[in-house]
TrEMBL record:
Required for morphogenesis under gluconeogenic growth conditions. CDD domains: YvcK_like (cd07187). It is found in: Cytoplasm. This is Putative gluconeogenesis factor. It comes from Arthrobacter sulfonylureivorans. Residues 1-27 are annotated as: Disordered. It comes from the Bacteria. Its main location: cytoplasm. Keywords: Cytoplasm. Residues 1-16 have a biased composition (Low complexity). Belongs to the gluconeogenesis factor family. The lineage of its organism: Bacteria, Bacillati, Actinomycetota, Actinomycetes, Micrococcales.
């Protein structure tokens, strides 16, 4: 490993002043919303286009290391926040090293299970900062400064959230029955023989993060998706204050589709069904563009009609990696976002 050089970021990086696209050639101010690997993909692309980047992250995770820390300490689940910070780390020896440190997971020796087993070090660091500072946003700023993050990471809400959903489950006789599933990890793994019918956030009056609401208001572009549709993308539209902010912001809005529609959450759904589910969740939400890889869309006419219901124009682009896996390529995705931004300049 190369020896780290350069000054240690002893204080959080001050926030940059935001300005609308086109003002003195300033880069666009972009807010990306989501969680997990989907948000990491969009951040990896957007960081190539702008220095004014804010990630707003779902806080409903209840599985793995995040779930254990959430239950034991009553804190926001740190895992998706950690992944967003890692995606924004500076592309230097310092940034890459701290990215790997944040993502490192402790593994017990075979046959033994310790209290640190499967905990990500970054989760522990974030929770430590929260305990010391007593402020989730301040803690994330300090973590971002340590990584040299090219942007800011904010939680969607200031309290941990729970996702619950009504799921149609097929029994052994092939008959469908309704079941209530509570918890993001259980809902995300509902299984191939089930269909998520409706989802909700608890508490239903949870307060949104004020800094996140301000970022949405001041943005030039808001990017929603990709990500697990019911547990990473739609939750932003279920939180009342965030939904209102997203509907009322003067920013342009882009929805990024997934590279696979056949997931455990969305089994049997088409790409157009994904858009219909979003419209049911937030009838007043409008988009300027919907970005989709043409290889995922079975019926282009139906999909464009569904996008039109959201006020959006469909932009088709080959944004997947060349390896065949449903993973976004950061350079291709960045190129697609660049074209969308340029095509919507006033």
């Amino acid at each position: 490993m190369a020896i780290l050089t350069g000054p240690l970021p002893l204080v959080p990086v001050p926030g940059t002043s935001r300005s609308r696209t086109g003002e003195s050639g300033a880069p666009p101010s972009v807010v990306a919303l989501g969680g997990g690997h989907g948000l990491s993909a969009s951040l990896g692309a957007l960081r190539l286009l702008t220095t004014e980047l804010t990630a707003i992250v779902t806080v409903a995770d209840d599985g793995g290391s995040s779930g254990r820390l959430r239950e034991e300490f009553g804190v926001l689940p740190p895992g998706d926040l950690r992944m967003a910070l890692a995606a924004l780390c500076d592309d230097t020896d310092w940034g890459r090293t701290w990215r790997d440190v944040m993502q490192h997971r402790f593994k017990s020796s075979p046959g033994s299970e310790r209290s640190l087993d499967n905990h990500a070090l970054g989760n522990l660091l974030i929770v430590t900062l929260w305990e010391l500072l007593g402020d989730p946003v301040a803690g994330l700023k300090w973590a971002g400064a340590l990584l040299g993050a090219r942007g800011e990471v904010l939680p969607m809400a200031t309290v941990p959230l729970t996702i619950e959903g009504d799921v149609l489950v097929e029994d052994e006789d092939g008959r469908l029955r309704s079941a209530l599933i509570s918890g993001q990890s259980r809902l995300a793994a509902a299984g191939r023989n089930s269909h998520v019918n409706d989802v909700r956030l608890l508490p239903d009056d949870a307060p949104a993060c004020v800094e996140a609401l301000n970022a949405v208001e001041l943005a030039d572009w808001v990017i929603l998706g990709p990500g697990s549709w019911y547990t990473s993308v739609l939750p932003h539209l279920m939180l009342k204050e965030m939904r209102e902010a997203l509907c009322n912001t003067p920013a342009r809005r882009c929805l990024t589709m997934n590279l696979s529609v056949d997931t455990k959450e969305t089994s049997g759904m088409t790409a157009a069904d994904h858009l219909a589910a979003l419209k049911r969740c937030a009838p007043g939400m409008r988009f300027d563009a919907v970005l989709a890889d043409p290889r995922v869309i079975e019926n282009g006419e139906q999909f464009e009609e569904a996008a039109g219901e959201l006020g959006a124009r469909v932009v088709f682009g080959r944004v997947g990696s060349s390896g065949g896996r449903p993973v976004h390529d950061p350079l291709r995705l960045a190129s697609a976002y660049h074209d969308i931004f340029e095509g919507h300049k006033d």
